[in-house]
Predict the 3D structure of the following.
Amino acid sequence: MGALAVLITLLALPAFAADLPQWPKAKGEACIAANDVMRREHPDMLKHQRDDTLRLGIRGAKASLKACVECHAATSADGHAVPVDAPGQFCQSCHSYVAVKPDCFECHATTPKATVREASR
Amino acid sequence: MINRRHMILASGAMLVAAPATARQAGQPASAAQRWGLLIDTSKCGVECTVCVEACKAEMGLSGHDRPRTDAQYVRKVNVRDPATGAAHSVPVMCQHCAKPPCVDVCPTGASMKRADGIVLVDRHICIGCRYCMMACPYKARSFAHEDQSGQQPHLPRGKGTVEGCTLCVHRIDEGKPPACVEACAARARGAMLFGDLNDPKSEIAQKVAREATTRIRADLGLEPGVRYQGI
């Protein structure tokens, strides 16, 4: 009986593994905190930082949505940045796995700053 | 004794060595500063829209080809005195009032004035009621009616929220002048002067102390940070 349970678990494992979110590798060396901390606390970090930055004008905070996007936005084969909220990308892959719809990207840029636009100004 | 010529030379030297320094990371904006603009309309061409275009590019403002409702942070207003025929072209943006009526009427606290006098919208808590748009005598604010795309990382903007000129707060915090001022100096006649009105050593503070300047609708007593010369 026990052997059967182990066998079923082993057979079921690949099915679970296939459903886990996957995302492109980040550009930076390391995140601002450990993965388990980031996974649990990034909404609070960003919510605290947004008020400090916008309302008080404090720049250079450790947590910043702009910095998240700069590091985690993938680059497509033709050299364009892929939006972080596109399916399978960094933000969207986990949020769709846990069925959470963040509002951030209704306003915030989903790709790092386009250098072309800056040059044409 | 400083004569007129030396005074002009000194002011020119100040202009070149604009003491724009970035605020240190972690430091909040301070009431010791009061950012302002001085716009010389005698240098402002009727057809010129360099500041408007620079603003749109800097802020990532893309319209829907509907001039009445598309977002516009700075617009050119052409005025003419019917008695004398004197015509002026005036760039009008958020005047960054010391007593902003948009902040008074906001029911959620989204419309706010930063410590250094920059008036902003906190879109995180803006409910899109547009009271501020009605309260503003300068018609300075716009409303995003539709889903937005192509935002710049430094300027989030989205459907259902009010927006307006931020005096390029993201550039000021880096020690740079607003995009309109930079573009006007580079590609037009340099009609705009940006600086700290509270700093007696700044070019703008010295100029407003020396020369006659006006504020639009000064009778309202809102004490805007944007001043004009020549109207």
